Amino acid sequence: MSLQGPELKKLGKPKRPISQMAYYFQDRMLEWDHSGTVTKYVQQCGDHWKSLSEAEKMHYKKRAEADRGRYDTAMHAWEARMLADGRPELLRTRTLADERRREKQEVKEREGSD
């Protein structure tokens, strides 16, 4: 049985990183004058996002990459803590596979040095 959001939040699991488009929407929502519906405004923002050049998107891409770095660092620390606490079922599948691979390598190295 896997834990749901509130339980993981209590355990301090980091929030997922924010995408570059989400950063763009955050900035655009500050400019919204509340005329019309949110749906229509978000649709307009989406259309505008598609029309931006790569150079114009670079600011948002850098912010998203920085947040991804924060997330990766925080997740590695959180997963190490969950592993130390005996909660391997909470680790991402890839992390768990990496951990098992590392343990096998350590066993081989120990057996080779005997």
Features:
single chain; 114 residues; mainly alpha; DNA Binding (I), subunit A; 5 helices
Give me the number of helical elements.
5
How large is the share of residues in beta strands?
Answer: under 5%
Q: Helix proportion of residues, in percent?
A: over 70%
At the first level of CATH, what is the class of the domain at 16-89? Mainly Alpha
Task: Name the helix and strand elements from N-terminus to C-terminus, one letter apiece.
Answer: HHHHH
Number of strands: 0
Using only C-alpha atoms, the radius of gyration works out to 21 Å
Name the shape in a single word.
elongated
- The assigned structural class equals mainly alpha
InterPro entries: HMG_box_dom, HMG_box_dom_sf, HMGB
Protein name: Transcription factor A, mitochondrial-like
Domain HMG box: 14-79
DNA-binding region: 14-79
What does this structure look like?
The chain is mainly α and 114 residues long. It has a domain at 16-89: DNA Binding (I), subunit A (Orthogonal Bundle), CATH 1.10.30. Helices cover 74% and strands 0% of the residues. The protein contains five helices and no strands. It has helices at 5-10, 20-31, 38-51, 54-84, 93-113. Helix 2 (20-31) packs across helix 3 (38-51). The longest helix has 31 residues, at 54-84. The protein starts with a helix and ends with a helix. 3% of the residues are buried.
